[in-house]
């Protein structure tokens, strides 16, 4: 598949989520996002105001996480987190669904909670994190269906804090489980250009990664013409 550096950049949510990150780390991460003009940053909820200020005047969207990383916050807390994030300037919301409810077969509660977050998000895009490491294929399919019915914009593999992350097989399964109205985001272990290209080939349109510079610099090295209109 042929991509320019700019095209891959606009498929990346640059991740700035590690719990030990300092204010300077957040600044540095936002600088990388601005330099490469990625789709968005995904920051901790406490960092939304800083990211909004740091990325003012760029085309980089501001994203944050809800119910992260375990997904077991009360629905009312997830809704309140979402409302605050949007009020502070977030335009992308990556929420962790309730993994325990899903594994228990309570799909209605999972769907209702996603719908509550979608409503609270308003115009912001909601990405539903399944945390595929803990799920059977049947549960993955059920989660994708619930997310689409609830109005989510994306289904997403992982938080990056589970035992395993995104796989091509899981992503292909997720792509098959939702209509063209819902996009698929890969997250968890996305560290190389080859991984990005393999996952794009099965229909992934967004990638959560902290290896943004490595991925995009690798494409520029391999294909110097990738900086132009065609890689």
Defining traits:
single chain; 231 residues; alpha/beta; TIM Barrel; 8-stranded parallel beta barrel; 44% helix; globular
Helix content: 40-55%
CATH architecture: Alpha-Beta Barrel
- Envelope shape: globular
The CATH class turns out to be Alpha Beta
Mean pLDDT, all residues: 96
Strand % is: 15-25%
- Note the gap between the termini: 9 Å
Count of alpha/pi helices: 10
Strand order of the largest sheet: 1-2-3-4-5-6-7-8
CATH fold label: TIM Barrel
Ranges with pLDDT <50 over ≥5 residues?
A: none
Q: By helix and strand content, what is the structural category?
A: alpha/beta
Oligomer state equals single chain
Largest sheet: 8 strands, parallel, barrel
Supply the number of structural domains: 1
Beta strand count: 8
CATH superfamily: Aldolase class I
Radius of gyration: 17 Å
Question: What would you say this structure looks like, in words?
Answer:
The chain has 231 residues and is an alpha/beta fold. It has one domain (5-222): TIM Barrel (Alpha-Beta Barrel), CATH 3.20.20. Helix content is 44%, strand content 16%. The protein contains ten helices and eight strands. The protein has an eight-stranded parallel β-barrel, surrounded by seven helices. α3 links the parallel β2 (40-43) and β3 (61-66). The chain starts with a helix and ends in a 9-residue tail after the last helix. 46% of the residues are buried. The mean pLDDT is 96.
Please provide a brief summary of the model:
This protein is of the alpha/beta class. It is built from 10 helices and 8 strands. Helix content is 44%, strand content 16%.
């Amino acid at each position: 598949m042929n991509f320019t550096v700019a095209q891959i950049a606009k498929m990346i949510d640059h991740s700035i989520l590690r719990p030990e990150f300092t204010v300077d780390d957040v600044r540095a991460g936002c600088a990388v996002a601005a330099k490469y003009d990625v789709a968005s940053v995904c920051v901790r909820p406490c960092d939304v105001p800083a990211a909004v200020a740091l990325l003012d005047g760029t085309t980089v969207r501001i994203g944050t996480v809800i119910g992260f990383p375990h997904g077991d916050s009360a629905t009312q807390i997830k809704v309140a987190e979402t409302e605050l994030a949007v009020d502070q300037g977030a335009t992308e919301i990556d929420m962790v669904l309730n993994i325990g409810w899903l594994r228990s077969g309570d799909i209605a509660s999972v769907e209702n909670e996603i719908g509550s977050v979608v409503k609270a998000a308003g115009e912001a895009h909601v990405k539903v994190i399944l945390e595929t490491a803990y799920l059977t294929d049947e549960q993955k399919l059920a989660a994708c269906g619930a997310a689409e019915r609830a109005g989510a914009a994306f289904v997403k593999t992982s938080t990056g804090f589970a035992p395993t992350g995104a796989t091509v097989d899981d992503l292909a399964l997720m792509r098959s489980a939702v209509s063209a109205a819902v996009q698929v985001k890969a997250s968890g272990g996305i560290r190389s250009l080859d991984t990005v290209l393999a996952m794009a080939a099965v229909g992934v349109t967004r990638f959560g990664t902290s290896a943004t510079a490595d991925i995009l610099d690798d494409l520029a090295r391999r294909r110097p013409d990738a900086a132009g209109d065609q890689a």
